[in-house]
Amino acid sequence: YAGDNNLKDGMYDIFAEYLATVAENLQKLDGIKVQSLDPMNEPSSRYWSAMSWKQEGCHFDKGDSQSRMMLAAAKALRNHGLNDVIICGTDETSVDDTAFCYIALSDEAKKVVGRIDTHTYSGSGFERIRNLAQNDSKGLWMSEVDGDGTAGKDAGEMASGLWFANKIISDEKIGDFCGKRLSNSGKTLVF
Q: What's the whole-model pTM score?
C-alpha cells in the first residue's frame, strides 16, 4: 500500500544481494565500471506502492528501514568484492526530504554512505544539505531532475535546453551536478 514499506522485512539481505549481483555482473560480464549504488529511489515518498502503474521508487520508512537497507547493500557489495563501489542515498524528491532522511539514518548507516544524492524537484534547504555533507565528509550530488520548463525569449526549440542549463547552474550550489547518463565510450554507468 502507498506509504507502507514496499519491501518485506525479511527481504533486505536478499534484495541487497540482487543489487550486488547486478553490479558485479555489469563489471565482470559487460566491462561497465559501477561507481556507486543507491539501493532506494525516493524512499520516503508516500505515493509508491506495489500496485502503482509507475513504480519508479520504493517506499522505505525514514530511520530504521532506510538504515537497514543501506547496511544490507554495503554488506552485499563487500561480499562480492565491490569495496570501491560507493553507497549513496537517499535520493529523495527534494533536498529537504534528503536532509531529513539522512539525519534519520543510524550512525552505522551514515558510516557506509559515501555520498549524499538528492533530487532537486523541490525544496529550499540547499545550504543545509551541503553542510550535512561537509560536516560528515560525504560527497554531494544532484542525481535527478527533469521537467517541462522553458527559458529564454523567443528561444524556440532551445527553450527546454535553456531551462535545463539554468537548472544545472542553480543546482551547482549544492555540490557536483550529475544527471542520469550513460557513456558507451568510457564504459561508465552513472545513475
A: 0.82
